[in-house]
Amino acid sequence: MPAIELSPQETAALVAALESYLPELTTERVGTDNRELHAELKKQEAILGGILNLLKAVKS
Length: 60
Hints:
2 helices
């Protein structure tokens, strides 16, 4: 698994970006009638949510 090192400022910026984007992704997922797109967006939500949780754990 590749690893990257982020400065505290980079971590904070990425957390803020993910926190801003995830609700929009959820809205898009809920609003689609396309089952394939819905499934893909749900996967992306889970992956990005996991990354957000990891970043918040490291930040604390």
